[in-house]
Amino acid sequence: MTDSSGTSPRGWRQRGLVFAKGFCMGSADVVPGVSGGTMALILGIYQQFLEAIRSFDYAWLQGLLQFDWRTAVGRPHFGFVIPLLLGIFAALLFFTRVVPLPYLIDHYPAPVYGFFFGLISGSIVILVRQFDHAMADWLALVAATLAGLWLFNLVPAETPDSAWFIFISGALAISAMLLPGISGSFILLMLKKYSTVFAAIGSFNLTVLIPFILGALAGLIAFSRALVWLLRHYYQTTLAAIIGLLTASLWVIWPYQSRVYEQVAGKEKLIMTTPVWPQTWSGYELLALGLAVVGVALVLLLEWLARPRQDAE
Predict the structure, then answer these.
(1) For a tag site, which of 88, 130, 217, 219 has the least CB within 10 Å?
(2) Do residues 251 and 106 touch, judged by C-beta distance below 8 A?
(3) What is the dihedral angle through the alpha carbons of 8, 9, 12, 16, rounded to the nearest 10 degrees?
(4) How do residues 227-284 score in pLDDT, each as one tens digit?
(5) Average pLDDT, stretch 112-133?
(6) Are the beta carbons of 212 and 201 closer than 8 angstroms?
């Protein structure tokens, strides 16, 4: 039996590992300000994730429409996509039905954000080790960091509610989710469409949901291909820009924040945060700091454990 069949022990182990990584990505998507793209990068499957999205291309669509099942079934990376999506979906169910992560975020935000702050900080350390440190790449890193800080400090602007702008909002939000360091929900906040979209989900308003979903699909198809092309042809510069965006995202993920909430579809939703320094260091603040240290240590440990396997291969 070959590994690609998925029936060998190694094949099942690989799919189980992808499922676990999908679970981690889904867990990150539950946390406002953290994107699944960030978690994919931390877990070492970012480029594979983009390639899997890219595998649903025109040739696949043509095979599907022509009932060419060999192309329709064989071309996409289903061996990766299916366990990944199952893991993401399992995490969304687990952290909304079993362990209420949104409740923990609302009532104990500093420890939750502290842990993710540590994960992102640790991933930055690992990525910097892969960095060539050429001058052009340093400029890309600085430019991406400044652009990210500018974006995260934008004041939400008034925008139209027409279908064309909802379409654009969907495309930009999904594109942001693919970029490590930027969350799609944050882009919706900046475009003043966060409340609109979540209210539409709650009321099943198709006049908003249809253009938003179409825009998200268009953004997913176009932007994933652009990122794959950049990683293939300008890997170091793209890596530098990703490090810059991750560095800027620490502004939003900093565990000690002044948070502003708004009622959306009958529920409180986080709409704005401002980093602050704790005035006191009680057990709550120290717990957040401790979880940040745990997050850094966990990422560095995972990277260290993966090294012998990579060297052996």
Answers:
(1) 130
(2) no
(3) -170
(4) 888 888 888 888 888 888 888 888 878 888 876 666 655 666 666 667 888 888 888 8
(5) 82
(6) no
Q: Which residue has the tokens 């029936």?
A: 7
Distance CA 130, CA 10 (A): 28
34: three-class secondary structure by DSSP: coil
Full DSSP string of 180-203:
TT--HHHHHHHTT-HHHHHHHHHH
Identity at 159, one-letter amino acid code: T
- Cα separation values, 158 from 161, 165, 191, 215, 272, Å: 10, 12, 7, 20, 15
- Measured distance CA(1)–CA(5) in Å, rounded: 7
Q: Which residues pair with 275 in a beta bridge?
A: 257
CA nearest to 208, candidates 194, 219, 221: 194
Sequence ranges of the domains in the chain: 1-101
User: What does residue 11 show for φ and ψ, rounded to 5 degrees?
Assistant: -60, -45
Residue 99's φ and ψ, nearest 5 degrees, are: -105, 110
Round to whole Å and give the CA distance between 22 and 54: 18
DSSP E strand boundaries for the chain: 257-264, 267-275
State the pairing for strand pair 267-275/257-264: antiparallel
How far is C-alpha 82 from the chain's CA centre?
A: 18
Angle between helices 46-54 and 78-93 (to 10 degrees): 110
Question: Measuring CA to CA, which residue among 70, 17, 80 is closest to residue 47?
Answer: 80
Q: Which amino acid is at 301?
A: L
